[in-house]
Amino acid sequence: MSSPLVDQVRAALTAARKNRDSDRTLLFSTLLSDLGNQEIHLGHALSDAEALEVVRRAIKRRRESVDAYTKGNRMDLAQREADEIRNLEQYLPPDVDEGEIRTAVKEAIAAGAKDLGSVMGKVMPAFKGRADGKRINSIAREELAG
Q: Domain coordinates of the chain in residue numbers?
């Protein structure tokens, strides 16, 4: 039995094919392939959390591509990757509020975490899969500096 997220991607692929949207068809077929490969690697049907991790990796790869294309002055390709990121982000849960992250960081500091590594070690598990590590890192740096 596949996860609801995998079923949503499959439905999006079908819709893209029916609409003859070649860009979205390629995007969703690639994502389904990544999900299938992860399923084979793990040896079982993916949970929603495992499928979300595959989606996050796909988004991360595309963000790196946007940076590379921008540096190479290929704005057309950077825009295409950015469009793919927007299409993939619809499968992510809503981002955690910055205030919630800041509160958790302050609590970790109050509990004795004195450096960035120890703060991140205490805060990251609570937000795994719900907030970007870079965002948590920057908030932790601000709070440690303040």
A: 4-89, 98-145
How big is the chain, counted in residues?
146
Homologous superfamily of 4-89: Uncharacterised protein YqeY/AIM41, N-terminal domain (1.10.1510.10)
The backbone torsions φ and ψ at residue 128, rounded to the nearest 5 degrees and listed phi first, read: -55, 125
CATH number given to 98-145: 1.10.10
pLDDT along the chain (146 residues), means of 10: 85 95 94 95 89 91 94 94 93 83 86 81 80 83 82
pTM above 0.85, yes or no: no
Exposure on the CB side of residue 68, measured as CA atoms within 13 A: 8
